Structure to design on (627 residues):
């Protein structure tokens, strides 16, 4: 345990043992799974040279694809935030037959291969599909279809982040609000929602990040036309086909990564603000 | 704040994946003692062809040498498959859609640069061409490439950037427009631009396009490889779709090759060479024809089986200076295919 002792000067004393071991494990693990691959990616993108990097990153087509990816993902994450909240509410506050089954269904988007999801959504919402046939406008092969696929893959996040907080929320708070004369809406908006803000934001951020990186399901519902509704991951695949080296594809990936990082950082700051403002529960 | 359930789900999946991995390794080890195993890395539309061919070859090899051979198949987009092999997927044989994809392996030092000359017919044991699939009765009366640029026609074809096979589709259209315009590049470009402006969905792969057209009722005409076209018509019944032969098309030559570096390392070179050579035998040619690939040596196949392949005028890739020239000219970054999609300034 010499390792742990040498580290002991770097940390505040704690009664819980095992810091050295777990910290070492965490760093190694993160490096192998996240840091090294991402460093390799950034390195790869740098191999094209700065001028070329800038040209690819600001190319009209790249910008259009990034706008499509981040824009549609934002819409999908917002939809997931709203309906995820309602789903979590229904699952924690009411007891109804089949609740466990509905609860389990929420996780299905994680288990299903996204290509399978894309194919079934695409067929269902096609002009000759069960659902698509009911509308007189196209869904599959439009931005609406892409958004639906992104909603699907991001569905579990908000539900799963909000659920435990909602379960721990003291019912007495609501009763107190009622006895103090607050109406139903006032209770929801002033008493129930504020403590949920941090967890909703976490769920939103996860759903957003997940949607931005999604490829497998989108290619089956997207028209795939450049400048129209080509998503950034699709453009990355195209760049891979164009040349034998990974440079140009890595450039777009690095730009996506940077944008996503800035967004997640922003959401994290929002969250910290939310915690200070509304207090932390759970 | 933690999300417990998804983590459990993922852990379970990871555990299951690891267990399956271990099982595969154990099975592979037990099998390897008794027989030789080959890996054929191929592209999408050859799935059914090699399913049948592998059995035929295994029977032939056992007969000839007494050795049992098991062949594993891997299918995917041609370019992605080639990259997987470059990145270490130890294929003994590759059977891909494009010469450039195999050249990628040669450039990586996995085989000789002259691989194309090692087998007959420039290493293409079967060929194909690009045809149209239309809905039953041909309601839009589509006869030739000219009909594909009409305002009332919606076209379905994969993106040639992501689908190696679809590059032949593009070049077939280009070759037609070129010969019609007498070689005027501006007119040719305009024709192809109008054609791709009619494309309703630009899927990433050939099978995706077939689905879009056949199962989701999108588009009036599917531009497809002849073998895919026959497969589609066969699958959905002749009452649903028809094949239309354009007046002119292109000779698609999907190449095969032994990945000598891997095959030598795995001591499978002899059987791998026999595997690709047997594709040129009467049995191999017959199986190719049965799956609607045009046999390179039609004399080895029953005339009846050849009835499915009407003779049409075909351009070859040599017309474009070979793939080494055609690839960067048409499908490179910012090249002709990217230009036809540039928004009007």
């Amino acid at each position: 345990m010499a390792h742990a002792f040498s580290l002991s000067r770097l940390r505040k004393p704690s009664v819980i043992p095992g810091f050295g071991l777990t910290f070492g494990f965490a760093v190694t693990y993160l490096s192998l799974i996240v840091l090294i691959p991402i460093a390799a990616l950034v390195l790869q993108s740098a191999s094209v040279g700065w001028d070329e990097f800038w040209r690819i990153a600001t190319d009209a087509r790249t910008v259009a694809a990034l706008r499509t990816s981040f824009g549609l993902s934002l819409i999908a994450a917002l939809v997931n935030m709203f309906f995820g909240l309602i789903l979590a509410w229904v699952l924690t506050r009411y007891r109804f037959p089949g609740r466990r089954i509905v609860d389990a269904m929420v996780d299905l988007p994680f288990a299903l291969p996204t290509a399978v999801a894309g194919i079934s959504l695409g067929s269902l919402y096609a002009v000759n599909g069960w659902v698509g046939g009911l509308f007189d406008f196209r869904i599959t092969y439009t931005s609406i279809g892409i958004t639906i696929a992104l909603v699907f893959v991001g569905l579990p996040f908000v539900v799963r982040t909000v659920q435990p907080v909602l379960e721990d929320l003291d019912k007495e708070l609501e009763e107190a609000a009622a006895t103090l004369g607050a109406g139903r809406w006032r209770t929801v908006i002033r008493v129930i929602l504020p403590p949920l803000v941090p967890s909703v934001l976490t769920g939103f951020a996860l759903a957003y990040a997940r949607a931005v990186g999604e490829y497998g399901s989108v290619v089956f519902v997207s028209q795939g036309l450049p400048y129209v509704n080509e998503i950034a991951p699709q453009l990355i695949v195209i760049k891979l086909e164009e040349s034998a080296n990974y440079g140009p594809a890595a450039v777009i990936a690095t730009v996506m990564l940077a944008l996503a990082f800035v967004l997640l950082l922003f959401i994290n700051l929002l969250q910290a603000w939310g915690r200070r403002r509304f207090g932390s529960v759970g | 704040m933690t999300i417990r359930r998804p983590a459990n789900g993922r852990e379970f999946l990871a555990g299951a994946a690891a267990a399956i991995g271990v099982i595969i390794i154990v099975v592979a080890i037990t099998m390897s003692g008794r027989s030789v195993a080959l890996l054929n890395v191929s592209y999408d539309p050859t799935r059914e062809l090699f399913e049948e061919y592998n059995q035929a070859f295994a029977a032939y090899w056992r007969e000839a040498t007494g050795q049992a051979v098991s062949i594993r198949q891997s299918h995917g987009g041609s370019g992605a498959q080639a990259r997987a092999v470059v990145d270490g997927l130890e294929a003994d044989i590759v059977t891909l859609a494009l010469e450039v994809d195999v050249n990628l392996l040669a450039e990586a030092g996995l085989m000789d640069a002259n691989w194309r000359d090692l087998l007959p017919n420039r290493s293409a044991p079967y060929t194909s061409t690009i045809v149209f699939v239309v809905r039953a009765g041909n309601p839009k009366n589509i006869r030739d490439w000219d009909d594909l640029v009409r305002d009332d026609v919606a076209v379905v074809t994969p993106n040639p950037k992501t689908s190696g096979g679809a590059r032949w589709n593009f070049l077939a259209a280009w070759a037609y427009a070129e010969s019609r315009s007498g070689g005027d590049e501006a007119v040719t470009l305009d024709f192809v631009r109008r054609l791709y402006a009619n494309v309703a969905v630009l899927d990433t792969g050939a099978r995706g396009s077939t689905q879009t057209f056949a199962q989701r009722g999108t588009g009036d005409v599917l531009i497809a490889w002849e073998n895919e076209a026959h497969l589609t018509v066969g699958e959905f019944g002749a009452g649903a779709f028809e094949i239309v032969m354009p007046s002119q098309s292109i000779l698609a030559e999907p190449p095969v090759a032994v990945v000598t570096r891997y095959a030598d390392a795995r001591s499978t070179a002899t059987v791998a060479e026999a595997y690709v050579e047997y594709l040129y035998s009467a049995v191999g040619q017959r199986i190719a024809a049965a799956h609607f690939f045009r046999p390179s040596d039609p004399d080895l196949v029953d005339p009846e089986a050849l009835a499915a392949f009407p003779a049409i005028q075909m351009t070859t890739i040599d017309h474009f200076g070979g793939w080494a020239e055609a690839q960067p000219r048409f499908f490179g970054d910012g090249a002709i295919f990217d230009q036809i999609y540039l928004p009007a300034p």
Q: What stands out?
A: Residues 14-46 of chain A form one domain.
